[in-house]
Amino acid sequence: MPHGPHRLSDIAAQAGLSLATVDRVVHGRPGASARAIRAVEQAIAELDRQQTQLRLGARALLIDVVMQAPSRFTRPVRSAFELELARLRPVSVRARFNLTETGSPAELASRLLTLGTRGMCDGLVLKAPDDPVVAAAVDRLADRGIPTVTLVTDVPESRRVAYVGLDDRSAGASAAYLIDLATGDRPGVVLTTVSQRSFMGERERLRGFRDRCGREIVLAGDVDGLDRSMERAVREVLGERRDIVAVYSIGGGNRGILAALDAADITPMAFIAHDLDDDNTALLRSGRLTAVLHHDLRRDARRAVEQLLRARRLIPGAPTSVLNTVEIISPHNIPPRLR
Question: Which has the closest alpha carbon to 60: 319, 314, 328, 324?
Fold first, then answer.
């Protein structure tokens, strides 16, 4: 297997495998599992994308980015980290990505506890449910000297060193404000969808929305934020309530939500969503979404890594949580890079 300029030791660290296993895969020797081959292929691809950092010549810190979210969200987050790490100075940092769309808190905690057991891990950036099992895993990593920064949703009862992401309660209140403006005195309820209320960020958005919204809220979801499952959840709600005047999508799956509304011949006066991923950008351009509540993922990535560097005392200051202000994006102010 071609591996370019990368040392086998770097590939092994990036893949979380032993040097002997990587040697077998790269040289095509028998005894390597299909999983190991995939891990080596992914590690080489990640090292290729982060080549700018590797040219610095210094010992690179290796951080793990572990996220449970739909791929439509993890793709831009991964890109944001790779772009920001290439610009980071004066420390060289590499990232290793472990991205899944679904899974139980126990499964996620098990993956966390493997970090640093097969090679180095200098820090963790984590998007995960706010669950005691996950918090306990973060605490055990802290005992082993691995600091954690939570990203876009928090696990506040853990020993994480900082949270970086949106001010979710403010975002929920902003969604209520926009829906109130759009619907006026028109009768009806607001369909509000979540992927999982086990994510603290989604709970905070819902709390901010409820505090500010003057209408009845009908809740759907607690599935996984994927289009098909969200469509099924919304169809169930629409079987009992058809007086939908607006939609606030907290956890995504918007193509599925729209498919369920279209099948029921319901057109809401306003549809507010989160995150300018590829799906939402296209839906915003086409007029299916009224507005998207957005925050800069590259800024999140940069600040998350900065908090890990502070925890490692490689840059001045103590790790500090960072709340970002929501940006309201309409069809008329989509950032140029996304048009």
Answer: 314
